[in-house]
Amino acid sequence: MWNAGRSRAAAALLCVLAPGALEAQSGKSDEAAFLRAVGEHFATPPGEVMVLSRWDLSTAEIPVVLRLATRAGVPPDVVVAQRRRGASWLEIARTYSVHAGDFHVPINGSAGFLAAVYARFEARVASEWRDVSLSDEELVGLVNVRFLSRSLGVPASSVLSELGGGDVVAAYIRLSGRY
After folding, report:
1. Angle between the 76-84 and 46-54 helix axes, to the nearest 10 degrees?
2. What Rg, from alpha-carbon coordinates, does the chain have?
């Protein structure tokens, strides 16, 4: 008969034999929590978000797809199809009259890994922000800073310091207070 003592022993053995197994399981649940939050924020059904997570996109790009689809009034798969054809995120955005200024997030303090982007914004008046160029990485960063800040009610500067250009799921977990 399987009992609690055996369960603890099996878990301990698993930790010894496969130390990364529990972290991997935790990572999957963290990603699921992040994707759930993305779906809620963009009012997208969980099934649709799960489909997006199975396509050739990074987890950090899913909020970009949903932000562009929402702003453009098109289904997310239309945005993904353009991306698969090789279009940059900014090219896709401009197709729908969404420009760099639409991704600007006001911050107080350091812009962290997005400092170069904010320098380009600051070099122009707001009416000229549409002409600011953004790399894919910068646009993904700006969208995720906005998403995390608004969905968690956290200042954008705090998101920038947590995100640091790294793992958006880990930043979400830290900022949401799950650890």
Report:
1. 10
2. 19
Phi-psi region of 32 (alpha: psi -120 to 50; beta: other; left: phi over 0): alpha
CA–CA dist 146, 139 (Å, integer): 11
In order of 69, 121, 124, the CA distances from 130 in angstroms are 19, 10, 10
Instruction: Say which residue, 153 or 2, is predicted with more confidence.
Output: 153
CB atoms within 10 A of CB 65: 26
Q: Is the pTM of this model over 0.70?
A: yes
pLDDT tens, 84-117?
A: 999 999 999 999 999 999 999 999 888 989 999 9
Do 35 and 49 contact (CB within 8 A), yes or no?
yes
Dihedral, CA of residue 49, residue 57, residue 97 and residue 151, to nearest 10: 50
